[in-house]
Amino acid sequence: MNTKFSPGQVVRVRPDAHDGHHRTPWFIKGKMGRIHSVAGEFFNPESRAYGGDGLPKQLLYAVEFEQRDVWATEYRGPDSDTLVVDIYEHWLVKAN
Amino acid sequence: MPGVHDRGGWPTDEMIDRSDHIWMDWEYKTHALVGALRFRELMNTDELRRGIEAIPSEDYEASSYYERWSRSLETILTEKGVLSTQEIDTKVKELEGRWESDS
Amino acid sequence: MSEDHGHDHAEIGPEDEHPGLQWDVSLSERAKRSLAMHELLIEKGVVTNEEVETASNNLRRRTPADGAKVVAKAWADPEFKQRLLDDAREAVYELGYSLAHDAELSVVENTKDVHHVVVCTLCSCYPSSLLGPPPDWYKSFAYRQRTVIEPRSVMREFGLELSQDIQVRVVDSSADQRYLVLPERPAGTDGLTEEQLADLVTRDSMIGVTNPLSPEGAPIS
Asked: What is the pTM of this model?
């Protein structure tokens, strides 16, 4: 597998509004997190949802975010609490 | 604006209702139909999800879980020309007629 | 939606003992259309009755007892546990469980420091190949909305209060990876057999909203 990102790496989720089916939840768009693990290669749901074959397969990553970064003061729990979301590679960019 | 299905973090005071409803026969059939269509490679999970997400917000929120599946099934199958809306309308009337005469 | 309660319902038809009469005219429009599609698709040979029956049986084939077997083995056998954490698909296959089509399985381990809870905010993704169908509450708007932003409050409703020293890690199964929580093995269970251990593993503890039962039978809170 030719992974663009590795576990531990800091990434940001693209803030894009995507017209049509996609699996990036709204609350994570634009947020910065850390690659937790590489989930593997999966059919691309964005094309498969419209009758395409979903190829080429896309890399999927489990990305871990701090709840404080996702929800700011709306999060009522300790700063150590986190949120993991599975995100496709093309939704992630390197963060500095 | 997130789609109506994209619900993480939406504000609510609702408690989690932990009761389980009794499955209806039509719900088993709906789930199984999707499974059979997947097996035949006539439909995939992403299409099912896309069809559900396309349901207008009010209807999405007013529908039960398998009512949403049913809507999506109809959307996808009519889109692919496997069934037509008219055929389904006609069959519903036929079923209703059958049920009426059974009672 | 027809609300005609004025007439008698059909007598229970043949052998079909499924709860919820198949031909109840007070069914919603969508329900009727599902039954219509079912009949049409079989009439037209798009699918066969056997294929639908098979899919229907597959839906009910697995129960939480299956997931509990996997957890109990992981508790009893550290090497199996490591295989489970490294490659869940292969590990559960050792016990005869295969995963649905294109989904993958990831097992996340609860420890004294980290507690996981799983949700699917976008729909209802769930490790049904191991646990069977998800409970209604897992698919509810309330659970999908609240778990990512207030997991501790959700768990509190289920009777679980975690100390602030424990990290709560919410997992949103947003793609085709399904998650199963491997709960922490309860204290005082050293002498138990795998079968006895499995009896302590509840469905809810494999989702993460509760802990497993203690040997005395109460959920660990």
From this structure: 0.93
